[in-house]
Amino acid sequence: MTETVRFTPLKGYREYPADEMGERAREFHEQMQLRRTVRDFSERAIPEGVLERCLLTAGTAPSGANLQPWHFVVVRDAGIKSQIRRAAEEEERVFYQERAPKEWLDALAPLGTDWRKPFLEEAPVLIAVMVQRYGVRPDGVRFKHYYSTESVGLATGLLIAALHNVGLVSLTHTPSPMRFLNRILDRPSSERPLLLLVVGYPKRPDVPVPDIGKKTLEQIATFI
Ligand SMILES: Cc1cc2nc3c(=O)[nH]c(=O)nc-3n(C[C@H](O)[C@H](O)[C@H](O)COP(=O)(O)O)c2cc1C
What we know:
By secondary structure, this protein is an alpha+beta fold. It is built from eight helices and six strands, in the order H-H-E-H-H-H-E-E-E-H-E-H-E-H. Strands 1-2-6-5 form a four-stranded antiparallel sheet. A two-stranded antiparallel sheet has the order 3-4. It binds flavin mononucleotide (FMN). Residues 36-37, 39, 111, 113, 171-174, 195, 209 line the site of flavin mononucleotide (FMN).
């Protein structure tokens, strides 16, 4: 039996005059250009309701067949944060000292990162971004999630932009492997951790960040 597709008029669409389009594109780029990955966090708490709204923004992302294969675990509990730090540092120590190929270590060198991850306890919030590899119907039957990694990546991008928009900073952290998050956060094996987003205020407004640049338009785009 085919389900009937229901349609609804597109809500809130606005077309802008060309000059206003240019202005809006410039303003948005200027704002996003200021986003930087921060690795030194203040312990200040995030005001009630802000994170929730940013997560709802993440949830507006497009996804394969609209299956919305994401789950965000928001960790504020100090004990759980310590457990995550311990497990992540264990993995990272092995990574930096044994597993990482020289080429990878060379690529990381300009960032000045090492196995120590104090921000996992200092930041007020850690968000474990989980990919639901498949869905499970109420009768226990599994169904495939299409393009789940791509979809969760897009949702995470929106989340990072939403956090930047409210004056919070974030660090995309990927201790490898990250399976320990399933155990500590008690998540099912149908979910795979994609990354751990560390969120909060910077330790100081002028906290140091690596002096790195972004590619030019010519380098990142081809117009045919
Ligand atoms: C998928 C992904 C994984 C990353 N993993 C880490 C990480 O484990 N540790 C870290 O310090 N930074 C990590 N980063 C942050 C990058 O190093 C950072 O985005 C990059 O250097 C550019 O800096 P910017 O975000 O300030 O523009 C990661 C970023 C991405 C997108």
